[in-house]
Amino acid sequence: MGNKNIAIVLAAGQGKRMKTNKQKQFLELAGKPLLYYSLKCFQGSPTIDEIVLVTGQEEIAYCQSEIVDKYKFDKVTKVIAGGKERYHSVYEGLKACEDCKLVFIHDGARPFIDEGIIKRTKEAAENYHACVAAVKSKDTVKLSDEQDFVKETPKREQIWIVQTPQVFEYHLAHVAYGKCIAQGLKNITDDAMVIEAMTSYKVKLIESDYRNIKITTPEDLEIAKILVESC
Question: Which residues in the chain come in under a pLDDT of 50?
Answer without folding.
Answer: none
